[in-house]
Amino acid sequence: MTATRGEIRSYRIRRGRLGATTAEALDRLGELIVAVDGTPVDVPALFGRDAPLVVEIGSGMGEATAAMAAADPARNVLAVDVHVQGLGRLLRRAEDGALANVRVAQGDANVLLRDMLLPGSVDEVRVFFPDPWPKARHAKRRLVQRPFTDLVASRLRAGGRLHVATDWAPYAEQVQALLHAHPAYEVVHEGERPEHRPVTRFEQRGLDAGRAAYDVVARLRP
Ligand SMILES: C[S@@+](CC[C@H](N)C(=O)[O-])C[C@H]1O[C@@H](n2cnc3c(N)ncnc32)[C@H](O)[C@@H]1O
What we know:
This protein is α/β, with parallel strands linked by helices.
């Protein structure tokens, strides 16, 4: 895989079996998949057009990704996750919905942003329900921390947005404090889910268990 030696991993390694349909889709739609190997991506070539780029980190099974891409055909959406099963499901959803603006990248989003996308080239970064790492001794594995917000700031265009949602209250407080204190960002929304973001699969499990979601959107200052 693609984690850089010595870096903290924000994800768990899962060994699931690929269903036959997903495996077949991954084979057939291979040109829509970016391997996160550190090689710079030619984004217009990947999408076959030049359009504002949204990067969704940790797209999971991709339901929200596909719905948001369908509602926003003028932007390109690159979904990155370490788990190939969900990326395969997303590609199938995109195919079923005839979505021409979805591509996927398999591997660590930190590597994708740092080594493979150009500074100032991203219109929006989404992080919906990052692994909460609820135990105090694991909190250092949370994705959204100062090095990550610095990296995202370097990849966003001026005025571009970082949108984070979580249902783990201490994580929400951490993200809020981080983005309010960060000189590169201006917080433009905090609180309820904005209408354009559908409820995600992970979020629904939390809602069923009585946990409310919290969204923070910050804009990169010019
Ligand atoms: C809790 S799940 C949420 C999935 C989906 N966004 C949802 O709300 O249903 C978090 C996802 O983030 C992915 N993830 C965590 N750290 C990542 C990283 N550094 N790069 C790419 N994906 C990552 C995990 O593999 C997992 O699929």
